[in-house]
């Protein structure tokens, strides 16, 4: 399997590149995608130097307002040199105007699929004004935000509600749009800056471990929390294995179910957790239900209003949490333990549990109908 493309994003509000004289500078240190940007009158030497330095196949051309205008490919540079151009020749006539771009909101998995389909090694991220906000690069990190937080994905369940679909395949490995659900989560986490991922495994664990290995092909380090097949630990018990195996985190830990399809904001959730000063933060989605009848509203048995097929909504647990690492010691060892019991314990102690509302799409793949809907089959 090819390495996943690396997301090289600007920080929030940093579309475009600040200039210092003739040199292009990123707005803040640590964001290096600007090194792949050149001007239309820059030389072949400048373009080739960037290509060689970062081992890419293309550089991107921007105008004086830092808006994307085209791309210069390594193969076109070599052809020009063979035809007699020298290294100081302008790249202007080598610029290809047609450039494939992706939006800042496009998920890592979808971008990877696009790159493979079009056989691209680099794809720029551009906003509505064509300003470059980052670059997806295959196989190599030019620069990306790194988070100290670990992520734990619960992927040990049997998925019995899916019947025959999970007879020979763990539920998190069921494909949606050609890619396992769990792989989508891993790619999203890595694209958001998570470098250390733990996957809790039990049922058909070998399939998961064989697919992901040590995580290097996905741009991260992956370790496995292996449950005893005869003693499942539930949605919370595997977290105690971190402590038992000698892993100690100094930062809040992101925990999530392995059967979710979502592109939630990892930085947004972590930031909310810190700002609220919570010991736990629960991501919240909105469940809506439309009443299939006309609802009658009355006062003292007198009809005052008819509401046709109203929609009601409730906040629901999205199966995504941020947990302070000190809480892991409260989880019993080698016992079935729902994570909600940990939350009840916190509430009983008067500790703050924060809520964070997700604005992104969220799907919990628990039943055949939900899987079919995610696959676009209904």
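^ Assign residues to that structure.
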């Amino acid at each position: 399997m090819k390495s996943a493309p690396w997301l090289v994003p600007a920080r929030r509000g940093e579309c475009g590149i600040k200039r210092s004289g003739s040199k292009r500078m990123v707005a803040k240190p640590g964001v290096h995608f600007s090194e792949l940007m050149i001007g239309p009158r820059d030389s072949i030497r400048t373009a080739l130097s960037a290509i060689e330095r970062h081992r890419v196949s293309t550089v991107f051309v921007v105008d004086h307002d830092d808006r994307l205008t085209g791309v210069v490919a390594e193969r076109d540079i070599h052809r020009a040199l063979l035809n007699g151009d020298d290294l100081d020749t302008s790249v202007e006539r080598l610029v290809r105007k047609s450039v494939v771009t992706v939006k800042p909101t496009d998920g890592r998995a979808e971008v990877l699929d696009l790159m493979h389909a079009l056989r691209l090694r680099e794809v720029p991220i551009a906003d509505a004004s064509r300003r470059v906000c980052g670059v997806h690069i295959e196989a190599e990190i030019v620069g990306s935000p790194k988070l100290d937080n670990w992520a734990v994905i619960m992927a040990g369940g049997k998925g019995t509600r899916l019947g025959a679909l999970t007879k020979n395949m763990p539920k998190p490995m069921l494909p949606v749009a050609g890619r396992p659900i769990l792989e989508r989560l891993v790619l999203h986490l890595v694209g958001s800056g998570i470098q250390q991922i733990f996957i809790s495994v039990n049922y058909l664990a070998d399939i998961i471990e064989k697919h992901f290995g040590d995580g290097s092909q996905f741009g991260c380090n992956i370790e496995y929390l292996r449950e005893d097949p005869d003693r499942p630990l539930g949605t919370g018990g595997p977290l105690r294995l971190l402590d038992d195996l000698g892993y100690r985190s100094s930062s809040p830990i992101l925990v999530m179910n392995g059967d979710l399809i979502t592109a939630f904001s990892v930085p947004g959730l972590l930031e909310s957790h810190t700002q609220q000063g919570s010991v736990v933060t629960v991501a919240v989605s909105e469940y809506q239900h439309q009443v299939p009848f006309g609802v009658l509203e009355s006062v003292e048995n007198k009809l005052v209003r008819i509401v046709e097929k109203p929609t009601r909504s409730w906040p629901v647990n999205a199966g995504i949490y941020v947990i302070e690492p000190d809480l892991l010691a409260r989880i019993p060892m080698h016992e079935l333990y729902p994570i909600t019991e940990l939350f009840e314990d916190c509430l009983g102690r008067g500790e703050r549990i924060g809520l964070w509302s997700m604005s992104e799409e969220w799907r919990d793949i628990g039943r055949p109908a939900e899987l079919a809907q995610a696959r676009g089959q209904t």
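DSSP finds nine helices and 21 strands in the chain.
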